[in-house]
């Protein structure tokens, strides 16, 4: 029984497909099939049911899978322990981020500096909503994420607030609200609003504030990029709720109103796993980014 066979078996079980598993492993599909067949012959049982459109575990496969994963985890742990003793950091890390970070977070610069310090670590980057990013951190599929608050944080996830600024309302220069300097949520209740989609920190803050005031906002447009929200407002398609730093970037084309009663704030935070297994590469990444971004919590 070889570790390679256990790795191929566990990957096919996770992907439920030989082709996807081979692509993930960066090997040819016949090689994956052949190694799993060898493992099945050694164990004397079929581990995978190949009769359907998707590959499923047999009863024997379901029994073997936890042991295969444990063996692979033990080997990875042994390698990490030796690397740490030798002062080496290598492996893979995944960083998640919301779409727009604003001027205070230079994520490409942070990742470039980390790569310079740890060239043996492969770094991946993904974009998603705050809710999904927090879940990815909690389950270990993402090592560090920049998320918008407020959002529910499950146990085992730690946070460091790195941006804290007011949320404001922006409208086109010809909008009736352009004669005012501030607006309440109630004053916006009957107007078409432009906002980030559900699951984002900004939208959660807006929805919670409206619910507390007994209001139901009229969301006319949703977009995942705050810059798109501002450009929609420039075209006169509604009032957009955006972070103040973004609004200032469009001050020549938009009128900015202070949002009052209640005053809302946009917060961005680093999120990382504080419980469960965390490898040395992920620990180094978290240390690097936390040290580079001041805690504004």
UniProtKB/TrEMBL annotation:
The keyword Transcription regulation applies. GO terms for cellular component: protein-DNA complex. Keywords: DNA-binding, Transcription, Transcription regulation. It comes from the Bacteria. One of its GO terms (molecular function) is DNA-binding transcription factor activity. Residues 1-58 form the HTH lysR-type domain. It holds the Pfam family HTH_1. Belongs to the LysR transcriptional regulatory family. PANTHER family: LYSR SUBSTRATE-BINDING (PTHR30346:SF29), TRANSCRIPTIONAL DUAL REGULATOR HCAR-RELATED (PTHR30346). This is LysR family transcriptional regulator.
